[in-house]
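Q: My collaborator sent me two sequences in one message, no labels, and asked for predicted structures for both. Can we handle them in order? The first one she listed is below.
A: Yes, handling them in the order given. First sequence, followed by its structure tokens:
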Amino acid sequence: MSPHDFHEAQALYKKHFHHTALHTVRAPGRLELLGNHTDYNAGLVMALAVDRFITVAAQPRTDGKIELVSSLFADSEVFPADEFKKNPAAPWADYVKGTLAQLHRRGVHFTGFNAAIHGTIPMGAGMSSSAALEVATALVVRKLFPYRLTPGGLTTAPVRNQRGALPPPSPEERLEIAKLCQAAENQFVGVQCGILDQISSLFGMAWSVIDIDCRSLTIEHAPMPGEAIIVCNSGVRHELVGGEYNELRASCESAANKLGVKTLRSVAIPDLEARRDHLTLREYQCARHVTGEIARVVAGARALRENDHEQFGHFMFQSHESSRDLLRNSTTELDLLVELARQHPGCLGARLTGGGFGGATINLVRHHQAADFITHMQQAYEKARNIRITPMVCQMVDGAE
């Protein structure tokens, strides 16, 4: 764990609660390299866990209450450990409450605790600060009140060693925690997201791409080429709770239903074209994007294996064009960022990342030209939009701990 993240969370905890926290966990944000809106269609996604984090410092308390403080919000949130209700004045706490509600539903016993939350993931940038907060919540509860989740439910809790530390969750446990956190976002927060974000935060690996098959829930890692990964935040914050995300999912599910399949993963592009008349225009557009995007993930993985970074970059540009023209989850600002990136000779590929409707672009840039690319993007975007951006170079990191 980065000493800086650890110390910031611990300092926040001590400032508010006046003593040192017992446990600290950290969950990374994620970038989706290829595979936009394919996860809830049981498709394929290529993702990265990156060095921006949600860190939570916590300690039990004895009065049956939970108190949360955050470095990003002025007011704390206090509620009973067995009562999870939304507070419109503190929507950020919904991700914690939703995760706690899912743990409670699965029989995990926990009592009151204090928690200080420190974040370095830009909010509203499409890097999944929400999933990282859900994952960090599940893991800090595991440290405070040990539990072990399996597909069949709770089993014997892990045992602390002589130093008071628990063994890390197994891959099987991590997958169950990912499902739990996804359910928190679906059922409590109200965003019908797939499982990409939670898996990415839990299964990250340094210097590696995470290849996720969202139908079989198999996860593999592949070495990432030594190019720079640079994020450009458009300055337009996306709010997936607003409904656009859920509408896209509904259109995809409606298309699958009319095509007689469980999910769009089972539809080949020729079959979709042959049955296009069965769908509304919007259903067809969403289905065409998803089927094409899944094919791009397959082709992109092959390009990386063959060390063909230029071809991989072309797939990134194609992905953005499909998101823009078919899925229609881009914005004028995201489109501009991609076009400005395309103009730079060091940029191999660029596309929106995350749910869309604002947020950021991910850019694959030749390593030795990264600094010049950042200067180019700052100057060109400020000239066009009068907005000063600070592009971020992101490193690939291990999953939550």
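Q: And the one she listed second?
A: Here it is, processed independently of the first:
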Amino acid sequence: MDYSTYEIYDFDHVSAFNMSTGYKERSYPMHWHSYGEILLVGPGETNVYKVGKNTYHLVPDDLMLVWPMETHEIVDADREKSLVIQFSNAFINSLFDLQRIMHLYRNVHVICVTAHPELAAKLKAITLRMKDIFYSERSDKEIRCCMLLMEFMLLLDEYRKELAPELNDEEQYGYTDDVMRRMMQVSDYIKNNLTADDLSQAAMAEMAGISRDYFSRIFKNVTGMNYSKWLNMIRMEKASELLTQEGRTLTEIAMLSGFQSIPSFNRVFREEKGMAPGEYRALFAGGKNVNNK
């Protein structure tokens, strides 16, 4: 794969939230970044976008969801009146529920105004409220925009039943607040103790005070993935963060991320990112050099 056409942008100008609009150019090349995007499609007969290998021909007021680390491209669209919201991956990772929603909707990239008119209208209203606040002179606009972003995500979750065919997940779930609190405590423990001796599903179920089978079922329903895949995802996030920092060897990064060996680290990283850890580090370093020119 030729990574030279990919572009990387650091999300360091704001801590959690950004917004942009008014671009004259109708296209933008394939790129990826660590933050996610929500795009409210502007007017015009032609609005063609690409996420991964899929191409979408959209209409005004459709919403496109681009999750962190996904490759995407604007093929031909009205960018001058479209609205782009950017949110940091750290913001999503700050709450278990936000992680859950993101992973449930990971394969959903378009909220179509014709297929889901009520939901699309409500989401558009939230994005326009964000716009009003973001471009105001308020000193607290970032936190207010983040609150609206959480409202946006919660609204998606409320329409899960309607979107079930696109999610390919029709199973509904309901857990008590106490169970969800314990699950959040376990997930926080894992994130802060990736080098612990025992992070097995059985050990974490015991920590949560529930049976292993019930723990497994909750993880599958709430995050959209099994426990081992989720744990690898958390390790990958830690490794990706460490790879952007200088001074650590790949072996140190693998160990600090909870991987037991370099081969397993390389295998999981390549499966998830499509490249080796060293390639990822080099790609990030190249992006920094371009940005610093």
